[in-house]
Model the fold of this input.
Amino acid sequence: MAKYICKRILNSVFTLCIVIFIVFVLLRQMPVEGYFSNFDKMSDTAIEVSLQNMGLTEPVVIQFVHYIGQVLKGDMGVSNRYRRGYSIAAIIAKKAPVSIRIGLISLVISLTAGVILGILMARSSKTRWKLFDKFGTVFIVIAQAVPAAVYCLLIQLYGTKILGVSMLFNESRPSTWILPVISLSIGNIAYYAMWLRRYMVDESNKDYVRFARAKGVNESKIVYRHILRNAIVPLAQYIPQSILLTIAGSIYVENLYSVPGMGGLLIQVIKMQDNTMVQALVLIYASVSILGLLVGDLVMALLDPRIMFTKKEGARQ
Amino acid sequence: MKKFKKVLAVFLSTVMAFSMSACNNSEKSAVKDNSVYRELYSKEVTSMNYLTESGVSSNKICANVVDCLVEYDQYGNIMPSLAESWEHNDDMTEWTFHIRKGVKWVDKNGSAVADVTANDWVSAAVYVNDARNDSDIQYMYNTGAIVRNAQQYYDYTAYLLKAEKLGVSEGKDAVDADGKIVKAVAPVKTEDIGVKAVDDYTLVYTLEQPCPFFLSVLSYTSYMPVYGPFLQEKGSSFGIDNDSILYNGAYILSSFEPQHEHVLAKNQSYWDKDNVLIEKIHEIYNVEGGNIAVRMYQNGEIDCAEISSDLIDSMMKDEATKNIIHRARLDSSFSYFFCFNFDPQFDGIYEPDNWKLAVNNENFRKSIMYGLDRVRALRVSDSYNPENMLNNTITPSDFAAAAGKDYTQYDALKAYTNGDSFDKDKALAARDAAKKELSDAGASFPVKILMPYNPSMTNWGKECQVIEQQLEGLLGNDYIDIIVEAGPETGFLSNVRMSGKYALLKCNWGADYADPQTWSEPFSKGRKYGFWEKSTDDNTAALYNKYTEMVLSAASIYNDDEKRYTAFAEAEAMLIDHAIAVPYSISGSDDYMICRLNPMEGEYAPYGVALWRYKYKKLYDTSMSMEEFQAAYKNWKKERDAVLANKK
Amino acid sequence: MMSIRNAKAAPLEKSLSQQLKSVTDLTAAYENIPENELFEQTDFDKCAAESISDAGYSYWKSTMRAFRKNKAAVLFLGIIVILLVFTFVQPFLPEQRNPKTINDDPVTGVQIINRAPDGEYWFGTNSIGQDLWARTWSGARTSLFIGCFVAAFEAVFGTIVGILWGYCRKLDWFFTEMYNIFDNIPQTLVLILFSYIMRPGVGTIIFALCLTGWLETARFIRNQIIIIRDREYNLASRCMGVSAYRIITKNILPYLVSVIALRMALAIPSAIGSEVFVTYIGIGLPTDIPSLGNLVSDGFALMSQPDMRYQLLFPTALLSIITISFYVIGNAFADAADPKNHV
Done:
């Protein structure tokens, strides 16, 4: 296993380089005009000089080598357009914690609520009236069907009225955390509940479950010991990545509530053509998501010992 | 399972504790009063380096924290600011300014760092014109008013940069990677630049050519002063946050949290403290302002909410809002006009050769000009009162005045200004004439007219659809076929207008200084607007030559404003007479607002940064209604006319 | 009342009990028939003994039967079919307006801007006077086209990659890294770049959505396969030398039919959702092409005024109906796909 992990990590470093290189090359295909806010009125010389100062006139490969050298030294450089001349590390250090904090709270809430709702729905789907199942389905369906931007705005417009709190997020006032966290959680609750219900319903039809029931094992033991443990495995793979990617924030919620986090930052800097920022963010997000995938696989193998990533003695491919 | 629960519980409690600890130092919100003005902003400042940045959001802050040599009153008259007085020589090439004594540079805490002296303008000029500093607005030293040796110094430093990069020693030509020759530029010393401090309080600008409007150039950020030693100390980090600039204006940027908030606090050591009426300005970042600002205003959380024109009708019917909505003062700093492309470079499927025939036919151009129902098209941007946005000449009204008269009321332009180019009968007559002439010339019908738009601009696409259907409906599908096409969101200018990939395009131009000359620039050579200088048609070429001549001779008149304006008005009238371009509108998409400020107060100048200054502005208890605004606006115009007439 | 009912019931009951009696006495009818007429001797057939009776069970038929039992799902299936048909038929119906035509007031000649829904304009008009009824259906057409195309690509390509990624250990590293690469190149960048090179349009959007759309499906299926690929029965099959193709198609995929069905059912709505998202961040289809994304984002900008919400309501409602239908159908199908639920 250790060997497998090492190999994956080594591969990942290589992948990371490829990702950065592709993004690097793609960025250099963007139109020159995008680097200037006053393109129309600037002289050709001014544009040329400016491009040279930004280091964009050199061959891409040389630029890339420079960049990698700089990153290896632990320096992500300064922003070009988003905040001209300001250290990227400092920008991210300020924004990331805000998104992570809100994201983690919301993740805990949505996992808890999603798992509970999923279990209740799965259990009730075997009962006569399927009451919980029906209510849960209505909730899931609504959360899925209404565009996130729309329900987030509705929650903000009416939620602030009902709760009597400020429209915008303010880190120092806990009451302003409530609505952003709720808006952020709704979609995830629906997602977890939907899939957990599906996996549990599938699992509860298995022979061993029927056998256990026939044997007279009590129902809640069946659900929690057997069904849930098996059903949660495919979901568990996503949890590490979800935790790590809270760093990316949420665009809708952060836009509406003015949360000074990372939500939509990547999109924003891509549109502004701030190359150094895009590269830094892609580097961070890619590392995080690659790591998340790896840890997710490990968690999956941990929860279900039957899952093997390495070749077992005697097993044929 | 138990273990899982435990882990979960521990995890949950840590997260909660973590978040709670962040919540402890709660702060009470500001008390509602008339000394703090709060508003939302949606575009973040990229840098506070006012010597290099041209972005509106950056300029909005800089306008309030750094003063220029001159400022404006509410009618657009130039008033002394950091220059107490000034004089110029007879041919208007040498301008001497007497700097106000005792003005301090202060840091973000308000403690004094140094005195403001004439040297600060010299430092600014040297910095802006040094290619190493990448200034977006260096061109202001070389447009209209040409500061002696400024461009030469820029070219020299640019050459040095390139030579250094290519490893060529100074004074030699070099060849860059693309095989282009980089010519050596003769050395220019910083002392050669035409900005000099005679003593600490006397500043002299030397210009290449006589320039009667030089004072109006001075309110651009590249002409703002900077404290040299501080600039040197900060180096490349000058202006990256509120610690790295110095303040001498009405406000100090006391808090700067990008994507969160800006706080501008009144500068207690400001030289003209009594005219700064709002104590604190609190700007809060939010990009969804269009959806939540009105509610926030009603909650008392902000004092100004911009309203999108789509919502105006609905809000004017809404009891809660109808009495507090008003308009902004008309903004004449930008002019929009339709350009015909005389040198089409678009795809063969849009028949560029056929278009060339058509566009060089004056009757064809006129049929479009008379046929375009501008009010109808503008209803997309302003459904409440589209006539407000109409602009009947290339130069907007209320832009510049001389001899007691607004430029657009000069004889040559008067008829256009007070009329409307839309005229069905004339359009149809022109169409019939054009049809005949063009079929004789061998053109095929319908003429394909490629009309691109930038999809990232609100409403432009919709406007194009309106125009397409209106023009085709009026002139007939058998005559023209307008093809509306979305251009790329990024690089639109360079891909569409500048590369000539359009037939008919809405273009715009922003004023650089207070003189009609600035509006002649889009039609001068190399500006990449309509490319009429490249036309192969004799008539068009003759028109172009005539126009260029008229502009040149108008520009050379510097000692008589009335004469100068008359000459420019005649040149501009010629453009419209021959339908080289179709005047369309002034700018303003989100011009309606609920705001506790009086839009008529504060400095007025349809160029530069004066419009964004909070100095002289006062916060009222409620927002004006539309009627109150109309009355105030009328009154303002009347007073302005009176002031202009007095100046004569 | 009761007495009348009793009176009527009494004779009925009587006749019933008589009938019943005759049925229970059936054996009596055969009592007198000789034994050789009752039974017939047959020879032992070796072939017939080898054959196994399948009781006429067919997996897909049973699935369909189970599915049909779910009334809600059948209803939504009907809705989606009607919707699809109507979307394509609508422009050919009489008295339909062109979605791009700007409607003028016949009296004043001014555009009919932001008219609330009424008898003439069923869904109202938008900010330049275009008929929202026509635009909503035209938008649905565009978005469904994009959605179906992207979902089909996602289903086919995603499933294939997912299976290979999950099942072949040797290819695990390759697909993992491929996934990582595609997952981490920002979609926004690709979309902006392509609309710069190819001009914004339906093709650009489809391309950009396809480029990243398959990732989640592939990863999802891969995870499912990893969970079951080393189960005992698969190991046994492998030991017996069953080909990988057969193991995948006969052992693994049937096991996953339910989850894959749900996933696929959500693919079309989620592709439309992606279109809405890219419009929200300002790089969607140009405004002159109606699509649900454009309509929703136009309506979203007007949402703060309650009397303008109709502009958001109709496209969002249509989007919701599509999503809900697919979700319910997908879930019902997944329930029905489990053979244990067939009995």
In short: Residues 1-5, 7-32 of chain B have pLDDT under 50 and may be disordered. The first strand of chain B starts at residue 36 and ends at 41. The radius of gyration of chain B is 27 Å. The CA atoms of residues 360 and 537 of chain B lie 6 Å apart.
